[in-house]
Specification:
By secondary structure, the chain is α+β, with helices and mostly antiparallel strands. Helix content is 27%, strand content 28%. Bound molecules: zinc ion.
Length: 579
């Protein structure tokens, strides 16, 4: 059945909706794919649902191909299971909680580790029943403090979550690698450009967690990736190699000199004033810990602190930049003039800053800096590794490539969970020797509805969306110009031939001007636009234009007889991606 646009809810909007700021939110609203029902809650209209279902289909095919088997767990969950692992409290306000008529505690599932662990512990007794990997495509609920960006970060969303159960760590790594490969195929087939990035700091070999980041300038996650090898990491987790200047020999050490730098509190201003580069600075930042300890962190002037690493290095849960008043009190100077020499308190120094020779630091005296400062000779501090990776750094893995910076949207995340849940919930089995052991688990998520928006973030231009063929709501957008019997007959014949070849057609049969129809076609972003009008009919032809070609305003005239086969070949070639 060809879908006529007059028989479907495809409410396009000309203006940019006031509440939307990012590309996918604007485009999905304007093109009539989604509508907001409440804060962070959306209706999927017909076109939006078709994209969602196509992504789900790819996910299911590749999960099944990897040997995982689908199950379905409820969205409405008794509180007992989250209480068993402590997450009933840990989740805080993010959990949607409710009571049934008898006063029992329930919640809506934000994730299902406990539920599947319970499912498996009731049935599995022996190592012979392992490994297992089960997945579901289910609606999840999280009461986000700030739902935003349309369906990128909302309160009700569709997720594919999978959970593996293995006899030991080595087997779990195998399951994890299988999922990693399945995910690579899923994201490739969906037509998304992505990087697999290291997501934890590598405490257990760095193999235990990876994010699938969809590259987009609007992404909230900062990523660095090597231009030579396949190392890529979330900046929060990235290992840090030497910066380009870190390997300078120290050379002759000068003696310390105090210089007057009136009103020059920032590094850029002082660097310019003294005629030296920012990397010549040993900048000093003051942080407070949860126990109100004040710690000075020294690092090169051109580097930034990775606060996750700093907290880990100090052995605390989190750190915050000290308030201005605390800085003034601790250093005796205005903000911008802090330095390690003479500072009475704990000082840590990033290892790359220990090699700065004849550096510049604040003098702990308003309007003064010190030149010729050398770590070890002039001050001592605990060496730590707390700087954030940045573009230009030498890659710590291959040691020849350099980091490039990217922005990404997290589309998938794979983890080895170990025995965290199985120990707490006693999901155990008897091994070959009859010994009782906890199962080793992995979990694997894909934000299915989020991928709809991510695809738009990556594939759109000023005119609208440019869907990758594999997940486009339809393959062909047919525009008929004028309500003429010959045109309509030609259109119907073409539709039948296309559908016989498995091509999905959305027919814009509205009584609208060509300009309106073409604008909507560009906005909706179906990969191929076919136009039939009086002019083309006169030549027994139609116009074919590809939306996916970035530069192409161009269209070609092809005969109505040849059109179905030509279009079918192009579509099938694009959907059949080798993965
Ligand atoms: Zn590398």
């Amino acid at each position: 059945m060809v879908q006529r646009i007059t028989r479907a809810l495809v409410p396009t909007i000309k203006e940019t909706p006031a509440e939307a700021t990012n590309a996918s939110h604007i485009m999905l609203l304007r093109a009539g794919f989604i509508r907001q029902l409440g804060a962070g809650i959306y209706n999927f209209l017909p076109l939006g649902l078709r994209v969602l279902r196509k992504i789900e289909a790819i996910v299911r095919e590749e999960m099944n191909r990897s040997g995982a088997l689908e199950v379905l767990m409820p969205a409405l969950l008794p509180a007992d299971y989250f209480k068993e692992t402590g997450r009933w409290d840990l989740y805080g306000d993010t959990l949607f909680r409710l009571k049934d008529r008898k006063g029992g505690d329930y919640h809506l599932g934000p994730t299902h580790e406990e539920i599947i662990t319970d499912m498996v512990r009731r049935e599995v007794r022996s190592y012979r029943q392992l490994p297992l990997n089960h997945y579901q495509v289910q609606t999840k609920f999280r009461d986000e403090a700030r739902p935003r960006s349309g369906i990128l970060r909302c309160r009700e969303f569709t997720m594919k979550d999978a959970y593996s159960f293995d006899v030991d760590e080595a087997a779990a790594v195998k399951s994890y690698e299988t999922m990693r490969e399945a995910y690579r195929r899923i994201f490739t087939r969906a037509g998304l450009t992505f990087r697999i990035v290291q997501a934890d700091s590598g405490a257990i070999g760095g193999k235990t967690s990876a994010e699938f980041q969809i590259l987009a300038d609007s992404g909230e996650d900062a990523i660095v990736a090597c231009d030579n090898c396949d190392y890529a990491a979330n900046v929060e987790a990235a290992e840090v190699g030497d910066g380009p200047e870190s390997i300078d020999p120290r050379g002759t050490l000068f003696s310390i000199e105090e210089v007057h730098t009136p009103g020059k509190g920032g590094i850029t201003a002082v660097a310019e004033f003294l005629g030296v580069g920012a990397s010549q600075f040993i900048k000093s930042l003051l942080y407070t810990t949860p126990k109100k300890e004040l710690v000075m962190v020294c690092l090169r002037g051109n580097h930034e602190v990775n606060e996750v690493k700093l907290a880990a290095a100090l052995g605390v849960a989190e750190v915050h930049l000290a308030a201005e008043a605390d800085v003034v009190k601790a250093t005796g100077a205005k903000v911008g003039y802090a330095g390690p020499i003479g500072f009475k308190g704990r000082v840590v120094i990033d290892s790359s800053a220990t090699r700065v020779s004849n550096g510049v630091t604040g003098a702990n005296k308003t309007d003064y800096h010190l030149k010729g400062v050398n770590f070890g000779r002039d001050f001592q501090a605990e060496k730590v590794d707390v700087r954030a990776a940045s573009a230009g750094d030498r890659c710590p893995r291959c040691a020849t490539g350099h980091f490039k910076a990217y922005k990404g949207i997290e589309g998938g995340h794979i983890f080895i969970l170990g025995t965290h849940y199985s120990s707490k919930m006693r999901a155990v089995f008897l091994d070959e020797k009859g010994e009782e052991k906890p199962m080793v688990m992995g979990c694997y998520g894909i934000g299915v509805s989020r991928l709809v928006a991510s695809a738009v973030e990556q594939h759109s231009d000023a005119d609208g969306i440019r869907w990758p063929l594999a997940i486009a709501p339809y393959h062909v957008h047919l525009c008929t110009l004028g309500n003429d019997a010959a045109i309509n007959t030609a259109a119907e014949t073409l539709c039948q031939s296309l559908e016989a070849r498995g091509i999905e057609v959305l027919w814009d049969d509205r009584d609208e001007r060509p300009g309106v129809k073409f604008k909507d076609a560009d906005l909706i972003g179906i990969p191929y636009r076919v136009t039939i009008g009086a002019k083309t009919i006169a030549q027994n032809a139609c116009e074919l234009k590809a939306r996916t070609q970035r530069d192409s305003k161009a269209f070609e005239l092809i005969s109505l007889a040849d059109a179905p086969e030509r279009i079918a070949q192009a579509v099938h070639a694009a959907v059949r991606v080798e993965v």
